[in-house]
Design goal:
Blueprint lengths: L10 H4 L15 E5 L8 H12 L4 E5 L3 H9 L5 E4 L2 H7 L3 E9 L3 E5 L13 E3 L5 H13 L6 E3 L3 H9 L5 E4 L1 H11 L3 E3 L8 E8 H6 L1 H20 L3 H9 L7 H4 L2 H11 L8 H14 L19 H10 L2
Parallel strand pairs: 1-2, 1-3, 6-7
Antiparallel strand pairs: 3-10, 4-10, 5-8, 5-9
Helix pairs in contact: 2-9, 2-10, 6-7, 9-14
């Protein structure tokens, strides 16, 4: 998650909003912009795209180093579907983008040295986040408010894996990390660190979104993609090993070492259990949680209860998917 990038500041005046889907209309493939690398964590999304391809929706996936670059490719009409968290961009720049599916939730874990037994012990103590204004810091801000504490010095180290290394080297004592790196820390240094209580209702981490114009001109394509996402997410909830089954069947992540492949089943088993991935049944409720989180984090302008779901979401593809899948 990123704050609104600077390149959006003069967007409306430049008239670029109208170009969001002009190039897409004639494209043969659905151009997907992923603000991340294809990895174990994004494998389920690729499986859903492959299943959509089986139904005639061919695609071209481009990975970007940063979410803001993926969003920029959407703005420039170079992509049709994006993956990221565009709430702040939609609100502050009035871009005609809409979310159509929640791919993952922001299930991150506060970890700290065992000298900090509770959050109260963290009052006035230093803490490290991914980057200024990002999701990890937002989680910290919300927890601090909930617990009635104030953190001391804040430092920023990009990448959960890098923060975990810094913890094991004694350079930092408290941070917020993703599921995989929480597990690594507990496995390698569980005698020195522990997990503190996080958020009860995690907000969206990665959303699938598109422009209004593309959705209008490509409704059936959008419906198929969302249907395959919903179908796979339901299957994953019942049996997380489906992702490894599909990976092997389709020879995905073939360039990855065996050690990485071996993590697919354990990762999706725990990620599903922890709620990182969950079928999107009530998007209105998801949006309300997101509005609360992002306004509290300072990334959106509230009050949260005044924000309207329809200004940020197009529920048509999910309604069609649920009807096709039987509720």
């Amino acid at each position: 998650m990123n704050p609104v990038p600077k390149f959006l500041s003069g967007l409306a005046a430049a008239g670029l909003m109208l170009s969001l889907a002009t190039a897409a209309a004639a494209a043969e493939k659905v151009r997907v912009a992923l603000g991340d690398v294809v990895s174990v964590e994004t494998l389920a999304f690729v499986v859903a795209l492959e299943r959509a391809k089986d139904r005639g929706v061919d695609y071209e996936l481009t990975s970007f180093a940063k979410e803001e670059l993926a969003i920029q490719s959407m703005i420039n009409g170079q992509s049709d579907l994006g993956v990221g968290t565009p709430y702040a961009v939609i609100q502050k720049s009035k871009l005609p983008l809409k979310n159509i599916y929640q791919m993952s939730r922001l299930v991150f874990f506060p970890v700290a040295s065992k000298e900090y037994k509770t959050w109260k012990d963290m009052n006035g103590q230093p803490i490290t986040f991914h980057a200024r204004g990002t999701g990890t810091e937002a989680i910290g801000n919300i927890i601090a408010k909930r617990e009635g504490i104030e953190f001391g010095d804040r430092s920023y180290v990009p990448g959960s894996e890098n923060r975990i290394i810094a913890m094991m080297n004694g350079q930092i004592k408290a941070t917020v990390v993703d599921l995989a790196n929480k597990n690594m820390l507990m496995e390698k240094a569980g005698d020195r660190f522990h997990v503190l209580p996080g958020l009860d209702e995690p907000a969206s981490d990665e959303l699938v979104f598109a422009s209004d114009a593309w959705l209008k001109d490509n409704r059936e394509t959008a419906n198929i993609v969302v249907e395959e996402l919903q179908k796979l997410w339901r299957e994953m909830k019942a049996d997380p090993t489906i992702i490894e089954t599909e990976r092997a069947k389709r020879n995905l992540l073939a360039d990855q070492p065996k050690e990485v492949i071996a993590e697919v089943v354990p990762f999706y088993t725990e990620a599903t259990k922890e709620g990182v991935y969950a079928p999107l049944e009530t998007p209105e409720d998801v949006a309300k949680v997101d509005f609360l989180f992002y306004t509290e984090a300072g990334m959106m302008t509230g009050p949260a209860e005044t924000l309207k779901v329809e200004e940020f979401w197009d529920l048509g593809p999910l309604d069609a998917a649920k009807k096709a899948l039987g509720g």
